[in-house]
Fold each of these.
Amino acid sequence: MTRYQPILIALGIAALLVAPIGQGNYIIYTLCSWLLFSIAAMGLNLTLGYAGQVSLAQAGFMGIGAYITALMTLNGIHWSVAALISILSSFAVGLLLGYPALRVQHHFLAFVTLAFNTLLFLVLRNEEEITGGSFGLVGMERPTFFGISTDSNLAFYYFSLVCFLLAAAAMWWILRSPWGRAFKALRENPIRAESLGLKIRRQTLLAFAIGSAFGGLAGALQTPLVQFIEPSSFALIHSLKLLLMVVVGGSGFFFGPMLGAAVVILLPEMLRFTEGYYLIIYSALVIVLMVYSPNGLIGLGQKLAEKIKPRQEARRDLKQGVQL
Amino acid sequence: MAELIQILVSGLAAGSIYALAAVGFTLLWQASQTINFAQGEFVMLPAFFVLIGMTVLGLPMWTSILLALVLSLLILGVAFKRLIVEPMLPHGTLPLVIATIALGLLLKESVKEFYGATAQPFPAIFPQTVYNVAGASVSVQDICNLVVSMLAIGGLQLFLNRTRTGRCMQASAQNPAVAEILGVNVKRMVLYTFLINAALATIASVLISPIYLAKFSNGETLGLVAFIAAIVGGFNQIRGALVGGLLIGVIDNLSAVYISAQYRAAMPLLLLIAIILLRPQGLLGTPEGRTV
């Protein structure tokens, strides 16, 4: 951590605290959905950016969280219990899915999660007695904590912000712990990591399961935010959207998913004048970004910063030697 | 019994078209480690080239199909390889996966915005007469689709195994470095693979669109089916993709009739998960070295 980082983070939190004051309901709603998608994207970043596995089911895990929370709160159970169960179930499903998939080649998790997300969508749509089918579930109330209701949009924003900060702190702690550092080792050089005694499969599996648990938390927040859930909010296309968030922001960077989520959620607002062409422009931008900077916007920023102020390098020729 | 025959024939016919997409998918993977998440959209798009040729330019059907083939070769073959795959290969598989996902979205949304969001009727190439064979109604269209796809895949197999260029392509896929040393123009061989994939996609598109109508969102299911077929059959074998495609077609039709129409789409997915659990190299595949 550099000298300026704590100050910058404090400034960032302060900005998040004052951001919704005096804004209309719609902007507060957008900010809330940015916060919860950031949580989901942060989890996916652990899977993708640190453990190097593609998960195409993050929206599915949000769905698990959202439906569990909805069903439990509709039955009068407090949100915090429901959210905890949501997180734990997403974690458990992640373990169950990841265990067989990670036994084999590296790209298989992508396919298993792809199949899982599609299956989950079918179940949510078809089991009408429990999930309400394609009509979805309505009437979930926003939670009340110690007599303080989060019914107003501003109150709910601060509630989401607290959840977001807790999630971000947990992620920060995970990545700083020796266990989290092992991920980086794994990503940079799996063979060396294994020779140092790291259990690659166990590490990757846990990364995926924890990443999924973050998805569960995001889902648990989505239920009280939207107060209406239906299967198509958790379809495969949303998993792809989450994947794009992580990659556009910069996978493997701590702040990448927040940036990516901001881009993906705010861009439609900014490109509203283009009407239907928004997705066309967006996907074209993603392709161009991937070609020029596979590390996303943060990677692009670093590249530009290095052009202006080159990083100190003792001997450039050594770099070539290391590669050989 | 008659019903079963009917289901089997239409299942095989649909499956053979899936196999075309799956074969292209495996070829790209072998030649350049490209997992093409836009494969479904690659099959969706040529049908619209045909429609543009017929309705906008007023060309006859076969000329339009030829036009669609040329456009597909140029856009889905050459441009896809030169502009997207080639610059990204050095960065590894992941950015490329993301780029193909974005490409799929781009193609889908472009068709939706520029051509139309509704399903478009597509001219049938083969007569749609239905014959009664031993009590089962069998349509000529299904039989023709099956024959054409089998011929295309059989021809491809012959080309890859019997011609010099085909063997060079196989060598480039198996070990690019050694192939290069032995004087094979690896880059050109990879380009051929992309062209073959585009051609297969065009054939699949022209065969399937009269049945399912041409719609911008067709790629979603087709792409998923192509993955599943490729993995079920074996990721590193053309035969595997063929068997996988046929199997998925038959299972899909069987489960629609005998299990549940609501969960029809779930059966291939369950098969995929079962295969990954029990036989990860696929039914006909040979195990690859573990990478993790």
Amino acid sequence: MLEIKNLHARIVDDGTEIIRGLNLTVKAGEVAAIMGPNGSGKSTLSYILAGREDYEVTEGDILYNGQSILEMDPAERATAGIFLAFQYPMEIPGVATMEFLKVAMNEQRKARGEEPLKVPEFLKRVKEAAASLSMDINMLKRPLNVGFSGGEKKRAEILQMKLLEPKLCVLDETDSGLDIDALKIVSDGVNALRSPDRAIVVITHYQRLLEHIVPDSVHVLYKGQVIKSGDKSLALDLEANGYAGVIGEAA
Amino acid sequence: MPAVQETIDRVRKIDVDQYKYGFQTEIEMDKAPKGLSEDIIRFISAKKDEPDWMLEWRLEAYRRWLTLEEPTWARVHYPKIDFQDIYYYAAPKSTPGPKSLSEVDPELLKVYEKLGIPLKEQEILAGVQKTDAASEDEEISDNVYKSGRVAVDAVFDSVSVVTTFKEELAKAGVIFCSISEAIREHPELVKKYLGSVVPTSDNFYATLNSAVFTDGSFVFVPKGVRCPMELSTYFRINEKNTGQFERTLIIAEEGAYVSYLEGCTAPQRDENQLHAAVVELVALDDAEIKYSTVQNWYPGDAEGKGGIYNFVTKRGDCRGDRSKISWTQVETGSAITWKYPSCILRGDDSSGEFYSIAVSNGYQQVDSGTKMIHLGKNTSSRIISKGIAAGFSQNTYRGQVSAHRKAANARNFTNCDSLLIGDQCGAHTVPYMEAKNATAKFEHEATTSKISEDQKFYVMQRGIPEEEAIALIVNGFVKDVIQQLPMEFAVEAQKLIGISLEGSVG
């Protein structure tokens, strides 16, 4: 589903190269965890996948279902089924969460040539999804992310992910700022989305999240490259021994 | 949210020249000779069949105007206006004054039909209701059209061509007619109130207006009456090189209530045209006037050529105790806007409000804001201003809040937010505050923000294309003000804002 080939990318503003020859393949149905120390390029990778303009790809390619997505803007990528759950979701003042969900869902439907959702159907879907994440429906009347706690923001991200039904989900540090109960709820939400035709990329610092969302593969990112890949035991190994050993091996 | 959706659809359909009201109507006009003199003023007054006192009032204003200098303190730049190169009176030959609907030239009716202004009472009564899918959720049904009846006064260049629902309003005791008609039919009211809020000596443009004003609306809501429907005036400038000098006077007697809305458009032309209006509101004890404007004069083309100069003096006098005046404006048009709808809080416990959205794009220049003059005790005022600048435009909020030494416990809250789209435009906030009474409490908040790349990226990541993402963020930014508009117009206003910002994303 996702093939990243020898990807090099830099920050447009100052030319700093962040991704330096990254290779990664994630198949449909797979949950891949990307781990790595601070500054290894994890969040940058998620932004580049989603098409953020601050980064420029200088070499290599990103294939999604066999097609290069480098020329697509963020909205086109989203419509094609790529979803990024942000580490720091943005506040959108004056735009009720409910309203935002409706616009997003219907824009994607429109791009696919589908009719907009009827209001009762839309409400039904939102209510079900919110209930599954233990979210109060009244919260959705508030402007998106404005005044939400860290946990509420993360839940709102997963809510959007559920409703937009993407094919490739990228979760950037979704566990940061969550207490253990919220972590459980969010993880359950993600697990419910596991399906044979969907790939999930989980970016995290800690093994903790991977106890709840058990990955099929684990990849260690360091200095903009995947330096080691393995199964879930790799994450446990990192937890126990830190990154130093893996980095040393690669060096 | 249907409004955003519609904004998007509309924006998509519209090409670079997005101004959709730029058409011109070929209609035979009766015009005064070009230029300004006492003779021209006599000509206008005679055309309107005015009593002598009115002519004298005009002439006195004219003589005063000759001694005044054009103000230059606003942050706007334009070549000097040649006041002798303007026509001061232009009226359709076929309809020189308001008539009943059946007598109005069908060509004129077509104009209003094209503008989407409902003039045919029958149709309105029949209730062509635009109701969106009902929903159980408040947030979503926020923008649903409510079928509402609106009485309209249609002003075409220098004359009012028709006023609807007059008879029905008269049954409630409400007078709604053109100012020209009011001068003839209700001279005692006009004499009593005209110029009592904005005196003929007020400022350069107001004085000019007092000399040459041609038409506008007159509203009188008697004691204890709640006006049974929304009133509105639709101003259309059609004729070339013609200035429009609108004069509107609204009086709400003790305990009365009225909600009034004005809209305006003009053809697309390369020359600039002048619109210099004066609006006066008077609220007596316990009265409330809500005045809303959706200003969509032709803004000029992409290079800044043409467009309306909108130099307007609007002021409300909370003359009675516990009276309330509320201004809401959505300003998207005009090449230059110079406009400060203000409140004089004379009565004790009176309150004034100013809610404004000013959108500028291309080379538009906006210098707008309000004055809240606290004179009475326990008076309060509230100012919410949202400026949105895009393209190469300049957008200034200029506001004055003052408390007289007798204005014990005066309260003001001001919030001015500016949003910049792109990096070639400018937003400026110029607040003046003056409290001569120690018990006055004034609060001022101001922010300037740019639509951040982060926000835009986030919204787009959900599958919302760039233009729509901006429209969504902007509509969120102005929501506090949109909510103040009468429901029927809130949706229109949102669409208009989307259209005005078309092409703002580079």
